[in-house]
Amino acid sequence: MIASNTSCIVERFSSFTPLNETETKLLAALESDPREYADGACLAEPGSRANRFFTLKSGWACATRTLANGQRQILDIFLPGQILGLREMSFEYNLSEFRALTNLVACPFPRQHLSDIFEQSPKLTDLFFMTLAQEQSMLIERVVNIGRRTAAERLAHFIVELKVRLNQTSEQFSLPLKQSVIGDTLSLSSVHVSRTFKTLNQRGLITMADGVVRINDLDALVEFAGFDRSYLEGHCHWTKNIDMAAAAS
Amino acid sequence: MIASNTSCIVERFSSFTPLNETETKLLAALESDPREYADGACLAEPGSRANRFFTLKSGWACATRTLANGQRQILDIFLPGQILGLREMSFEYNLSEFRALTNLVACPFPRQHLSDIFEQSPKLTDLFFMTLAQEQSMLIERVVNIGRRTAAERLAHFIVELKVRLNQTSEQFSLPLKQSVIGDTLSLSSVHVSRTFKTLNQRGLITMADGVVRINDLDALVEFAGFDRSYLEGHCHWTKNIDMAAAAS
DNA sequence: CGTGGGGTTGATTCTTATCAATTCGGGTGG
DNA sequence: CCACCCGAATTGATAAGAATCAACCCCACG
Questions:
Q1: Angstrom distances, CA of residue A209 to CA of A128, A175, A201
Q2: pLDDT in tens, A198-237
Q3: Does A241 contact B at CB distance below 8 Å?
Q4: Which residue is nearest to nucleotide C6 (CA to C1')?
Q5: pTM for this structure?
Q6: Using an 8 Å Cβ cutoff, are B101 and B39 in contact?
Q7: Which of A62, A71, A126, B163 has the fewest C-beta atoms under 10 angstroms from its C-beta?
Q8: How is domain B8-121 classified at the architecture level of CATH?
Q9: Which residues of A are less than 8 Å from B234 in CB distance?
């Protein structure tokens, strides 16, 4: 059976700016076709035509690139409410592969739905622009993370980022990822991820058991990771102008 | 004195889709205020209000992040015709620093100009969306590069990418970057960049002298770097629909 | 001539990958 | 309930890649 029928996307977007009925309907169209995918299932192949995107309703997914020598790099971890493949929109073919990291429910929708939104609602267009910009800043943080931080700092940063993105207020949350997946995200071997968890544990920063991370000392962890949450905080700036323009006309 | 008065942005955008007079004028407004900056000059500080962007008319620039411990990571290398800070648009404050890598000419413009464009031209909005998506795919390629390739592969990939972005058809081009800058881009020490140039040279792939790279065997270099140019090739998909809609109304 | 910045080279150290062996935990089938 | 299997996690030993440190060269520029 298929999970909840509230729209994750509408929920997320309306947290930035109020949406009218038309806008809500346009967005809801993106989530009209919920389907289940099993852990490990592939939602889109690299190189296939980029004419279908997904909204993620529940579960975790990722975008990956696989190199000729078989090495894998995970580019994004997607959480419910996100759109899979937004950046591929401007490309003829998918550059990356989209894969389920847990059992999940996602809604495929054709490119045309996005085109409709761009034609009909400048406000929503802005919000999509913002979404893309936010994704980009996460990517930048990943470049910094992989390029300039040690294994322990990377893992600490990764955990804090997830905690913030999950909107977790309690000091523990479920992390349903294999260590090999975490490794492919942070450019570490799975073996070293294991070691690094141990290190963070020994430093008294986190405890990991049964797929649940417990953050013992958030401030220390944030400090240790060099984490600055501002890169996750997108704004919708010019929407007001557009609203005013619309009201004036 | 200030360089050429043709608009780089108009040129770049019109290579994707034809622009009418209004659109050209809107874009040209972004380049109305050319200014010179010296090599090493800082165009925008991290943490400052993100209300001013730049178009780059000539010279090279970069976006960087500096960590608490002083390490630096270069996030983008900007070439003429690009916009500096597009992704910061959805943020209240700049996340990164923008710095001149050569003497250059750039045109600052206020956020309002972009807002105007978004309000007045869905077609240009699409093109900006595409630009952002293209930047994002370059960033992804950088993640893969830093995360999963050896120093020699990274440098090879970097050089091929620049060659393609510069639209260079000849087998050599000017690379006005210090090795420390290349290192900060590829997450290598400047010392190791030096060594890596030597390695590539010994393999007969490139020759570097006097700030000029000569590519001896492009096919071999592309093969060695694992380079696939498709990530640089953005498309403008739904513009046609919008044109048709506009024509119909 | 000095001086200084960038580039090169060699020696050493550190971090992380790789390989191999072992443990742990969750199914499955007898 | 137990034996078995399998994938994941852990641990240790070793090796490779890149950083760091230090010395030196080269050259442009005063």
A1: 37, 10, 11
A2: 999 999 999 988 889 999 999 999 999 999 989 988 877 6
A3: yes
A4: B178
A5: 0.91
A6: yes
A7: A71
A8: Sandwich (2.60)
A9: 90-91
